[in-house]
Design brief:
By secondary structure, the protein is an alpha+beta fold.
């Protein structure tokens, strides 16, 4: 018999070789994965302070590196400086306050030798005693330092240390640190270049802001010029609008007061032949002006020089000292002006007078801009005053009239130009208002209204041209609440903005991306040839959403659950498309999140292969009920509750029958299940002595189910209220609407469920006598988030008050918003949810007796 020993030895050698190759493969795989992650972080982070934590996160996956720091050499001082520090024992203040904390320590030793050093606590103490380096900080059980090279030069040291004796570093882990250090210098250089680029962008932005500021100043200057032209136009109209010269003087005063300080103003006229100054108009808080002979005062100086004059206290003393101005004895008894300016009234016949303004007690200091303004005004006023003061010849009057007409025509042309500019500005405002009404204010994406309009156009186009396929992607963000809780609502807004830009990069230019509300987005893909194109978009979105969102040093992982509906001839309205996309998204979220699902018959689990029919048959699902209390603002429990039926679906888990109803294999099965559920709800109401709300589909209003429905309602000891979905009721048949009216005439209570989820149709509230109106959670959120929906809510409350309909708000965490919703007029809410114990069978199938072709039999 052959000896098996050589074979066993050969097998042992092969096993040993295989284990060695497997270990080497795992090591290479770890190295490759770590380098890929490092490259991704270096490409995505915007600054070095975010790069080091990302490297630390990579290392934590492969070796004990909870205590980790990076030291780089300052290229100017040639000293080692701390760039990143995380330690289990020592705080950041310990290494920063140590004398020569890196050059003399073991870190400096690695930098000087340029070689990787691995020390245990005993070997570190031994080398410290030999004087190789100083012992700084808390003593680690295991310490590894790896030099960081740029080309052939050492630029720093990367250190990982462990305070646990059992957490040592293997050769593979040390090799991982060495490989990471080789790529770290390149990554640092890439991030530094990115930081430099961002700095240059900021400098360019600042320069543009300065240019914009200069442009605004120029615009302001031109605006003041236009204002002056308007003022001059008013002055030119004085000659024709006022016949009384005193009114002209007052209007002149008002015009000058509008452009400068004019609390003290007078108008003086000069009679050259008589040599007298008269003051037909004066308003002054100190001086009363009377006619006087022409002398050497401020007014005479303006008339003599025929130029505007600006006089302050300094110039006044100079003019008096020169003899240009002479004061009479009376001036010593009155208060003198501290600032004075005057402008001559020039006409074709010369200077006829002046306009002067003055201020006392330094109340105002005139400047040359004021002088320029009053000079312009005086040139116009002179002509107006001369028209009212002199009786000119017919030729002179005709010329003056032509001059005024020319000036007025010019001013009207300017006014017309201004009006035309206002019209253009109004058009821009209207365009902006239209944009604001159809776009989300946070992300600037199209809102629900614009999306539904475009979807309706696309559906009509598909109905005319069946070859032009389209798809709708309904996207719900995963873990969005955790981002708001951990980073704050401001970060949540920034996250939504980031998501909108990311989604826009995943679609084509002609595709439509919209934000419905909160963290719900929809995409309309047009001009599709097959479903694969929609699937590719969904994959891209899921892939980009796998990236963590970081802000303020905190990173949160989100994701996206996507439901997809593809164009189909069975779609008659957009509500069906949105409903199916929402159902597919809900299926994807319950199936594990971060995935997509197409809406197809298999999703309902009722039209699949025969081997799966019994697996998804609704009559075989275990059933239980939950009761939700209706409460008021004072936490007062009402005598009515909402009853929800749940089935234990093998795929979706515990799921509301409102969702499971559409999974029924046949319509007959759906009717039987609904009537049996209603029978159990009536039993609950009879045993618990409560009036109950229960949601039904429109199928119970069909003729084959209506009579059994009426019999069940008559058996109820307490009032039942049947709730019908608003979206379904919009497309109800005439027979279903007639049976609904019959229920109301019988005195049975009916209600409208999930109202205003997609649209707010107030006309529907007036068509039937609804006892209760349940606002959708989506609409409740919108009322709190956007003011425009408050107007819709007020319309709903006005109609329901007239119809004596009670409004109840529902939605996730709606109790957190009770105070806000109360301010909008809501008084009733859904409170706590309770399980309902039934002393009946566990599944609907045990209470259903059906005939394959006969009518429904109630047991």
């Amino acid at each position: 018999m052959e000896d098996p020993s050589p074979v066993l030895r050969k097998l042992e050698r092969n096993n040993k070789r295989l284990r060695f190759l497997l270990k080497k493969y795992k090591q290479n795989n770890h190295l490759q994965h770590a380098l890929i992650l490092l490259s991704e972080r270096a490409s995505t982070v915007a600054e070095l302070t975010l790069l080091y934590p990302a490297i630390h996160d990579i290392l934590v996956k492969y070796l004990p590196s909870r205590s980790f720091y990076v030291v780089l050499q300052n290229q100017y001082t040639q000293t080692l400086e701390l760039s990143y520090f995380v330690d289990e024992k020592d705080g950041i203040a310990v290494p920063l306050h140590e004398d020569s904390h890196f050059s003399d320590g073991v870190t400096g030793y690695v930098f000087r030798t340029g070689e990787t050093v691995y020390l245990t606590k005993e070997s570190m103490l031994e080398q410290t005693k030999k004087g190789e380096f100083k012992a700084l900080g808390s003593q680690a059980e295991h310490w590894v330092g790896v030099p960081i090279y740029r080309d052939s030069n050492i630029i720093g040291v990367m250190v990982s240390q462990s305070y646990q004796a059992k957490q040592s570093y293997s050769e593979q882990q040390i090799e991982l640190l060495e490989v990471m250090s080789l790529y770290l210098a390149t990554a640092i250089e890439r991030v530094k270049k990115r930081e430099l680029l961002e700095s240059e962008v900021k400098i360019r932005t600042r320069a543009l802001m300065q240019s914009n500021e200069a442009l605004n100043k120029e615009i302001e200057h031109r605006k003041r010029a236009l204002d002056r032209q308007q003022i001059l136009f008013k002055i030119s109209e004085l000659a024709t609008q006022f016949s009384d010269i005193d009114d002209v003087y007052k209007q002149v005063h008002d015009i000058i007061r509008s452009i400068t300080f004019a609390d003290n103003l007078y108008i003086a006229l000069y009679d050259k032949h008589a040599g007298w100054l008269s003051f037909p108009y004066s308003v002054d808080e100190v001086t009363q002006y009377k006619p006087r002979p022409f002398a050497k005062g401020y007014s005479e100086l303006v008339i003599r020089t025929e130029q505007s004059q600006l006089i302050d206290t300094v110039r006044a003393k100079t003019l008096i000292a020169e003899g240009t101005v002479q004061r009479s004895k009376e001036y010593n008894k009155i208060q003198l002006a501290t600032s004075w300016m005057g402008a001559p009234l020039k006409t074709a016949n010369g200077v006829i007078g002046l306009i002067a303004c003055q201020a006392y007690d330094h109340k105002y200091e005139f400047d040359y801009d004021d002088v320029e303004l009053i000079s312009f005004v005086s040139n116009q006023i002179a002509s107006v005053l001369q028209t009212h003061l002199a009786n000119q010849a017919l030729k002179s009057s005709h010329q003056e009239l032509e001059h005024r007409v020319a000036e007025k025509t010019k001013a009207l042309q300017q006014t017309n130009l201004h009006l035309q500019m206002q019209i253009e500005e109004r058009k821009k405002i209207e365009q902006q208002l239209y944009h604001d009404a159809h776009h989300d204010p946070l992300t600037s994406l199209p809102n629900r209204s614009l999306f539904l309009t475009q979807l309706e156009k696309t559906l009509h186009k598909f109905q005319r041209h069946p070859d032009h396929h389209f798809a709708v992607l309904f996207i719900d963000l995963d873990k969005f609440k955790s981002i708001n809780d951990e980073l704050g609502h401001q970060a949540g807004d920034q996250f939504l903005i980031w998501v909108s830009k990311t989604f826009a990069d995943c679609i084509r230019d002609h595709d439509l991306l919209a934000r419905l509300a909160g963290d719900e987005f929809v995409i309309l893909l047009d001009h599709l040839s097959d479903k694969q194109q929609a699937e590719d978009v969904a994959k891209r979105i899921i892939r980009v959403m796998q990236q963590p969102f970081c802000m303020k040093g905190i990173c949160v992982q989100s994701g996206a659950s996507i439901g997809i509906t593809y164009s189909n001839k069975r779609y008659n309205n957009i509500d069906e498309i949105i409903r199916d996309a929402d159902a597919a998204m809900y299926y994807a979220k319950n199936a594990g999140r971060g995935r997509y699902e197409f809406y197809h018959p298999l999703l309902t689990a009722s039209s699949g292969a025969n081997k799966h029919i019994e697996h998804h048959h609704l009559s075989a699902l275990p059933t239980h009920f939950r009761r939700t209390e209706v409460i008021s603002m004072a936490d007062k429990i009402n005598s009515i509750s909402l009853i929800d039926a749940f089935g234990e679906h093998p795929i979706l888990g515990s799921t509301n029958f409102d969702i499971l109803k559409k999974f029924a294999a046949e319509k007959t099965e759906q009717l039987e299940i609904e009537l049996q559920l209603l029978k159990q709800v009536i039993h609950i109401g009879n045993t618990q002595s409560q009036d109950l709300l229960f949601a039904c589909s429109l199928a119970v209003l069909d003729n084959q189910a209506f009579n059994p429905l009426c019999q069940l309602l008559k058996s109820a000891k307490h009032q039942m209220c049947l709730l019908f979905d608003e979206a379904a009721l919009r497309h109800a048949s005439s027979q279903q609407l007639e049976n609904l009216k019959t229920l109301c005439d019988m005195g049975e209570h009916v209600g409208l469920n999930d109202f205003a989820k997609d649209r707010c149709d107030l006309a529907m509230l007036t068509q039937h006598d609804f006892k209760y109106l349940l606002l959708s959670s989506t609409f409740s959120k919108r009322v709190l988030q956007q003011r425009c929906y408050d107007l819709q809510l007020q319309g709903i409350l006005a109609v329901t008050k007239l119809k004596q309909t009670q409004v109840i708000a529902k939605g996730p965490a709606i109790l957190n918003f009770r105070g806000l919703l109360e301010s909008h007029g809501i008084e009733l809410f859904f409170g706590k949810q309770h399980s309902v114990d039934l002393l009946q069978e566990a599944s609907v199938s045990k209470v259903v007796s059906q005939s394959s072709s006969g009518p429904i039999v109630l047991t």
